[in-house]
Amino acid sequence: MDVLRWIGPLGLRAACLTAALVITGCNTTPVDESVSWSPEKLYAEAKDEIAAGALDKAAKLLERLEGRAAGTPLAQQAQVERAYVLWRSGERAQALSVLERFLKLNPSSPGVEYALYLQGLINFNDNLGILGGLAAIDLSERDQQAARDSYQSFKQLVDQFPRSVYAEDSQVRMNYIVNSLAAYEVHVARYYYRRGAYVAAANRAQQAVKEFQYSPSAEEALAIMVQSYDRLGLVELRDDARRVLAKNFPDSRFGDETLGSARQQRSWWRFW
């Protein structure tokens, strides 16, 4: 039997209509209510999503707000807050990218102060525990660039905005970073020394003294230099390092009584 004749004219129309409705239904996408929202409403909704812990939704709303209110202070605010949301969502690299772009395009924005602080904070937290696993550190050097980047962000904030509400905390974090980096450098120098790599130990210790001369780790770095130069038979360099150690740390636990000879020098490693 002919299929079209079997269905009949009215049946055919009904079948076509049903098929059209099914196809239309499959292609229907949810209506985006935010399309008609004002920039202010977009921002308010984004803040509500942040408060509710819906960070992915908040990030999308803030990104939409950046485009909707481009060139306005509200768009700048949205950009910085989106960086914060991305960071809290675990998107560290993307957050830093947003902040870098913001600082480059808006050097005179009121948001620069917080953007610098947030930039420093993201890199700082990436390096928390910098001293935590030193005993199990690998032979190769760990990349400490994030810590150095964090320091530079905090330093720029303190230099550019000395009265900032973030300045005091930034300074505290800067001090922590310096001491941590110095301790790391000394740890590596000590590691080299214990394995008989005296040239590498002396060079690493010297770098620590040069970069972090006001750090508490400078004392031990100088002691490693004295010890390493002595093992290498570099008497003049050894004596120079010893004089610097005695002058800057007259009460050092690495004094002449423990640094006098190669045999005596072995004893002060027990402090490590």
End-to-end distance = 97 Å
Helix/strand order: HHHHHHHHHHHHHH
Number of strand segments:
0
Instruction: Assign an overall shape.
Output: elongated
Q: Which structural class is indicated by helix and strand composition?
A: mainly alpha
Question: Which stretches are poorly predicted, pLDDT < 50 over at least 5 residues?
Answer: 1-17, 19-24, 129-141, 257-272
Explain this structure to me?
- The chain is mainly alpha-helical and 272 residues long.
- Helices cover 70% and strands 0% of the residues.
- It has 14 helices and no strands.
- The protein has helices at residues 3-7, 9-27, 39-51, 55-68, 73-88, 92-105, 112-126, 145-160, 167-194, 198-211, 218-232, 235-248, 256-259, 262-265.
- The longest helix is centred in the middle third of the chain and has 28 residues, at 167-194.
- It starts with a helix and ends in a 7-residue tail after the last helix.
- The model is unreliable at 1-17, 19-24, 129-141 and 257-272 (pLDDT under 50).
